[in-house]
Amino acid sequence: MNLFSKISLAAAIACAASLFSLSQVQAQPDPKYGIHDRSRPTPEAIESGYPGTQDKVGKAPSDAIVLFDGTNLDKWVGDNNQPTKWVIKDGAMECVPGSGFIHTKDSFGDCQLHVEWAAPAKVEGDDQGRGNSGVFLGGGRYEVQVLDTYNNKTYADGYASALYGQYPPSVNPIHKPGEWNNYDIIYIAPRFNEDGSLKSPARFTVFFNGVLVQWDRELTGPTGHHVRPPYQKHDIQQPISFQDHGNPVRFRNIWVREINQ
Questions:
Q1: What are phi and psi of 144, to 5 degrees?
Q2: Which of 168, 189, 230, 248 would bridge with 156, disulfide CB 3.0–4.6 Å?
Q3: What is the CATH number of the domain that holds 43?
């Protein structure tokens, strides 16, 4: 191994150690702030460098399970396993306000989930009432927030890409209303002992428009509005869901890669 390789290896080890230390320090939501505390510092808006107006949809990796390719909703159902009322427009699935959540027919555990979404181009409302939806894993228990936070201030733990009610994103690299945003979510499902007690918590890493905004975050339990309920034992494999929050948010190019630990 030459000197450059030794230096590079040492730098990589140091970086990994610092990230591990960071994840340990940030293992719980900041105790200085309550849930949805509006005094909590909000994420800084930044330019992601990732195009938001792209017309060409990328391809899923060859080993991915494609959940939505713009042509049909065959892999999705509505609440209570009824046919969904969401619609397809211009190659995207669109929430019909009042229709309820949409869920995958299949269930997934540890995975990499890729989702592209766009808030309505016509801006209506503000705060949590503007371009609101959510990506849920663990059978609707754990939410990565979807919200139009482009020049739209709200509580920090409710920003786009927040682990809702627990962890704000580190920055806010969102695109303009009507433009496409990308989430790449690494989800590790919680594990439970036979008696129902928690063995290991759910963990999330999130890239938002190519920017790392959540690193190996450990959830305290299911996410929720003004609540932090405790874990309750559930199967590792659970459906993926998108929220109907009363706004016609669009989604496209959705695929998942299962992680075998």
A1: -100, 115
A2: 168
A3: 2.60.120.560
